[in-house]
Amino acid sequence: MRDALLAHAPLILLLQGQHIFEEMPRGASPSHVSFKDVETRDWSVADQKAHEHFVTLLVETNSRSRKLAQDIVDEIESVLDSASLALDGHRLVNLRLTFWSVVRERNGENFGATLKFRAATEPL
To answer: How far is CA 113 from CA 14, 22, 33, 49, 120, in A?
Structure first.
């Protein structure tokens, strides 16, 4: 997921650089995307093992306007929703954006967003 986001020029332009992190470094750029939680559940049927994964992404911006956060959400959705990503040892059945919220950050000034994706996978 991170590689697909890093390869998307419009998103990198909005973030003013490749500010997409699996683990937030100290002093990270004010506008960035980070992976937060990944929750996995069994999704097997009688003859096929499968899993569903819920992935949460966080967006933080340096903008007092909701527009930048919403534009970043739109670009992330355009890259990942229904993407056919390659996985080691598994097949991605589908990947969908199931929830997003654009909100004012705790500092009371800037806007950020939370996105939640659901991925269904099967072992090869």
So the answer is: 14, 16, 9, 33, 23
What CATH number is attached to the domain comprising 87?
Answer: 3.30.2000.30
Q: How many domains does the chain have?
A: 1
Q: What is the pLDDT of residue 24?
A: 80
Rounded CA separation 88/103 (Å): 35
Cα–Cα nearest to 4, from 18, 23, 14: 18
Question: Which of the residues in the chain have pLDDT under 50?
Answer: none
- Structural domain range at position 112: 2-123
Per-residue tokens: 94: 């589908």
pTM for the structure as a whole: 0.91
